């Protein structure tokens, strides 16, 4: 019997499997120390997961939503009971503060609850037929076994969205969490097993990402793909999915603009934006990043935001005194250094931070760049770190043109006290989610997803369930 937070294992057909075809080290980014190892699934183990998912689907689709819902709700309660231990493991694997990790796990439990309820409302409809005595029915049916890929930045929330939606719709699921953060997904598998989920309905595999995604997506057993990660990998997986016309949901990168008009209370807006920028050390696809600030308040806003960023305590996420934890790995630190250097060389100013926060551990200082030209890399490439850029604008048209300039379209924000400006800017921003005077754009109840090169399809909300259902029209005479 495995502990409530299993050590990294494969979970196939209800079995916890410690060894595969290879392994990789699990590293704590705050200490750079090895904290465990992660098994890599062999091709035979992936085939076993596919077989289990096919059998699991045949069984699970016959379990009625009322009973599926009970298992999901029981799992949500177990996740809440175990949330302290799961959160501690997330912080140790990925560096975010313990408070953030706990909030994420509780949010994941809410997601299980939301889908437990929403699965009971997978309504079809009755269409008036053209002939007397006929019946025209629109039916909703689960798509079938799902291949799901969740990233390292929100290992609990983004795994929960994929698992809970699949299971609530009546699908089985093979999830590949990021190898750097396997424990939250495994803890959810454990909670679902304890809640009575039949074997094979959920399987968790780990390994070389491209080997696993190629193996699963090419299999005729898999009927749906759901992925959160970078736009480059999303495009690669979309091409593979297209070969067999598999349904897919892609939640990819962003580069969120924030338009700050000159009628705001600057101190209040800084207080709202600061936690959004430093959350998870900026490794958030909806993090506020490109600040377009109306010219009359540009200087005052930049000074206030730089001061707020400089006051952030950076350090090990397990220490409650720290406001911001470590970045995920050394690659992110290298990316921050490259982006800041390039922006500086392009003529941008560094108003706060701009360097590593310590010699050991992957820590970066919260950074504010200002007056950076559009040609600099940081204005075009998602920083995925604690870097904000402030540039001035004159008119609403200029600000919207700047905000919509990039191929990304995930989140966009605006701050103003004018309802006219709120309405105009909310309609003009090219984004899947828009926050006006706040940053709360991702909850269990509302659809979340991007447009343009930020992906397609939604997670959460009614749309999140619909993404795992086929529509069938039945005409009865
Ligand atoms: P990456 O592109 O190598 O990996 C991103 C994620 O995709 C990881 O979770 C990884 O396990 C997975 N992945 C990579 N190749 C895959 C494949 N062939 N098949 C299936 N899954 C695959 O980049 P990285 O260095 O880990 O992260 C850096 C970039 O990734 C960031 O700059 C950011 O743009 C993006 N990212 C976005 C999100 C998001 O929430 N949208 C999350 C994590 C990373």
CATH superfamily of the largest domain: Aldehyde Dehydrogenase, Chain A, domain 1
Bound molecules: nicotinamide-adenine-dinucleotide
CATH architecture of the largest domain: 3-Layer(aba) Sandwich
The first-level CATH class name of the largest domain: Alpha Beta
Mean pLDDT: 97
What name does CATH use for the topology of the largest domain? Aldehyde Dehydrogenase, Chain A, domain 1
Which runs of at least 5 residues are low in confidence (pLDDT < 50)? none
The count of helical stretches stands at 14
The best one-word shape is: globular
Task: State the separation between the terminal residues, measured CA to CA.
Answer: 54 Å
Helix content: 25-40%
Q: How many beta strands in the DSSP annotation?
A: 22
- β-strand percent reads 15-25%
Largest sheet: spatial strand order? 14-15-16-13-12-18-19
Integer count of domains: 2
* Biggest sheet details: 7 strands, mixed
Structural class given helices, strands, pairing? alpha/beta
């Amino acid at each position: 019997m495995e502990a409530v937070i299993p050590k990294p294992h494969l979970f196939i057909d209800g079995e916890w499997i410690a060894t595969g075809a290879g392994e990789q080290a699990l590293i704590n980014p705050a200490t750079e120390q090895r904290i465990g190892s992660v098994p890599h699934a062999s091709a035979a183990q992936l085939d076993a997961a596919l077989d289990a998912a096919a059998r699991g689907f045949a069984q699970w689709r016959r379990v009625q939503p009322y009973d599926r819902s009970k298992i999901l709700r029981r799992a949500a309660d177990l996740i809440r009971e175990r949330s302290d231990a799961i959160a501690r493991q997330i912080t140790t694997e990925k560096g975010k503060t313990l408070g953030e990790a706990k909030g994420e796990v509780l949010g994941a439990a809410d997601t299980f609850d939301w889908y437990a309820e929403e699965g009971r409302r997978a309504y079809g409809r009755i269409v008036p037929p053209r002939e007397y005595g006929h019946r025209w029915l629109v039916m909703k049916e689960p798509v079938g076994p799902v291949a799901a890929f969740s990233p390292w930045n929100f290992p609990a929330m983004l795994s929960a969205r994929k698992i809970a939606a699949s299971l609530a719709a009546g699908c089985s699921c093979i999830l590949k969490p990021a190898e750097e953060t396997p424990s939250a997904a495994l803890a959810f598998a454990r909670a679902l097993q304890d809640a009575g989920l039949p074997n094979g309905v959920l399987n968790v595999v780990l390994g070389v990402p491209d080997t696993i995604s190629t193996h699963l997506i090419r299999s005729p057993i898999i009927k749906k793909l759901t992925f959160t990660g970078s736009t480059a990998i999303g495009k690669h997986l979309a091409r593979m999915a297209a070969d067999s016309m598999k349904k897919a949901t892609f939640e990819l990168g962003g580069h969120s603009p924030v338009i700050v008009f000159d009628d705001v209370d600057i101190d209040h807006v800084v207080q709202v934006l600061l936690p959004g920028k430093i959350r998870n050390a900026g490794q958030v696809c909806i993090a506020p990043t490109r600040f377009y600030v109306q010219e009359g308040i540009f200087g005052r806003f930049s000074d206030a935001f730089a001061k707020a960023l400089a006051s952030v305590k950076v350090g090990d996420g397990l220490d409650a005194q720290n406001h911001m934890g470590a970045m995920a790995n050394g690659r992110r630190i290298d990316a921050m250094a490259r982006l800041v250097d390039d922006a500086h060389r392009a003529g941008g100013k560094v108003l706060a931070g701009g360097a590593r926060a310590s010699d050991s551990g992957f820590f970066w200082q919260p950074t504010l760049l200002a007056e950076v030209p559009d040609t600099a890399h940081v204005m075009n490439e998602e920083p995925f770190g604690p870097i904000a850029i402030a540039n001035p604008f004159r008119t609403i048209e200029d600000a919207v043109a700047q905000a919509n300039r990039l191929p990304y379209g995930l989140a966009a924000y605006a701050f103003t006290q004018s309802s006219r400006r709120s309405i105009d800017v909310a309609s003009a921003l090219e984004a899947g989610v828009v926050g006006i005077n706040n940053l709360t754009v991702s909850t269990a109840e509302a659809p979340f997803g991007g447009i343009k090169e930020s992906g397609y399809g939604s997670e959460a909300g009614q749309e999140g369930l619909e993404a795992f259902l086929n529509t069938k029209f039945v005409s009865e005479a």
